[in-house]
Amino acid sequence: MIDQIVLLLNDYTFQVVALGTGFLGLLSGVIGTFATLRKESLLGDALSHAALPGIGIAFLLIQRKELSLLLLGAMIAGLLATLIIQVMSRKTVVKLDSALSLVLSSFFGLGLVILTAIQNNPNARQAGLSNFIFGQASAMLRRDVQLIAVVGSVLLMLVVLFWKEFKVFTFDPMFARTLGFSSKITETLLSTMIVITIILGLESVGVILISALLIGPSVAARQWTDRLSLMMIIAGVIGFISGVMGTFISSLAARIPTGPTIVVVVSFFVFISLFFSPKRGILANHFAYKKRQRAFMKQIRSLEEGKG
Amino acid sequence: MDKAEAIRVDHLTVAYDAKPVLWDISIQFKKERLTAVIGPNGAGKSTLIKSMLSFIQPITGSISFSVDDQQDRAYKAVKNRVAYVPQNTTVDWDFPATVMDVVLMGRYGHLGWIRRPGKKDKEIAKQMLLKVGLPTFASRQISQLSGGQRQRVFLARALAQEADIYIMDEPLAGVDMKTERIIMQLLKGLVRQGKTVIVVHHDLQTVKQYFDDVVLINREVIAEGSVKEAFTEEAIDQTYHQDRNLGEGGHPS
User: Fold this and answer.
1) Which residues 3-62 of B have a C-beta within 8 angstroms of A?
2) How many angstroms away from the CA of A171 is the closest CA of chain B?
3) Which chain B positions have a beta carbon within 8 Å of A167's beta carbon?
4) B116/A171 Cβ within 8 A
5) Cβ separation of A171 and B91 shorter than 8 Å?
6) In what order do the strands lie in the sheet with B60-67?
């Protein structure tokens, strides 16, 4: 067993994939913190599903698996979906949640139709387009990891640079506008960063599960701290560990899919944090409540005794 | 005797969909006065404020601001001279931030893009916390604040903007007596320093005691002017008891 693990850790493919999913988890954790705090968790889910037809159409156009072009297609589809959701919920009587689920399912449906149709094309089968649905991290190449690292570094730098603007816009967007910061610039920048993060994760985690990687780490991190900067760092660390651990577990045996394993690890962190965190955890709250109850009962009793 | 105006609203009409919420509103908010905007629910008080701050595009009409060295400017040109205090229910108080973080946001407008708040900004923020009676709260988590404390934190944030005109949406809604006293003292102090303060207010009982000027609106301006002249039984009656049927229903204020 131990030999097997050592062998695995030294395996080049494993190292590449683990590093790639680790970076991806780190980035998702950091950027996802804004999505969680802006209460836009569902938007990420809709965007990732909406990316699928973009991949299919991009492949139809170029007829080979050129990852960067496929992801460009995914991004265009994702941004188009954002636009449709915004127009639907602003200009018409459709509520945001209806707009989200409508766009999510219709784009995803279209994506499935296109993907199924082009499966007859031997080229497409070979390209493994259906892997985008659940993700296939083992398909990750060194190049892909480099792409994640470079794009990810740029996004992280933007977070540091526009920290103050993102913070005030996430907390109080109305007030931020009265300060003279353009909401168009800030919102567009932030949404684009979220879309890019999702797109980067499509290949390894897949369109269905990537939003869990985006939201999970920050939800878990919120339980452990009351500071935005620390929350973001913890979310990044949880994301990174989840990526590496998920890849490791799924490599122990054949046919364990990586993307879903990563999401299971993230969920484990969320579960632990929700229940066991010292201040905000469900257990801590329960005990605090019991303690207050006991103190109150004691007070009542002493009052009654005083009377009697 | 009349003071110059700080904000002039000229023939403003605002509608959501086809229903007018504000109809041909013209108001002059005077400089160095404490003005209450009064009216029933759905009268368009918040809409008026949001139009003044360019959150809402009016159908017709114009709004101009005047501060010491700049006359008749669009809101955009004097943004940093105008501080806005939104209703404190509009934000998520479980946001991971301290009281200091929130008050410092009042300095962001002066800093501009990218630059971070420095020592001087933190000093100003601390002073403002002292003024609103929360000097020991700087590192307190905002989720632990009571309603009145939240409102005072928002006020401190506005004070940190060091503006000339303060526009506040129901700062006294749901606050305790102690907070109400502190806030009113502060607002009167601002006016004494030559600032202009405009407050959306809901309590008719306290208007005479608290304010210099009053604007009574219910979709239209019913009365405006000094509290003595404009805040009459007749005008109040007209504002609250008459169904001013400019299209029914409509959005809440």
Assistant:
1) 53, 55
2) 7
3) 97, 101, 105
4) no
5) yes
6) B19-30, B5-16, B60-67, B70-73
Q: Where are the domains of chain A?
A: 2-277
Domain total in chain B: 1
> What SS3 string covers B17-71?
CCEEEEEEEEEEEECCCEEEEECCCCCCHHHHHHHHCCCCCCCEEEEEEEECCEE
**A2-277 CATH pick, 3.90.226.10, 3.40.720.10, 3.30.565.10, 1.10.3470.10:** 1.10.3470.10
Distance, CA of A266 to CA of A212 (rounded, Å) = 8
In a domain, B10, yes or no: yes
Q: What is the ipTM of this complex?
A: 0.88
For position B9, which CATH number holds? 3.40.50.300
Q: B93 by DSSP, 3-state: which? A: coil
Per-residue tens of pLDDT for chain B, all 253 residues: 345 889 999 999 998 877 788 889 999 999 999 999 999 888 889 899 999 998 888 999 999 999 888 888 888 888 889 999 998 888 999 999 999 999 999 999 888 888 899 999 999 999 999 999 999 999 999 999 998 999 999 999 999 999 999 999 999 988 888 899 999 999 999 999 999 999 999 888 999 999 999 999 998 999 999 989 888 888 888 888 765 454 444 444 4
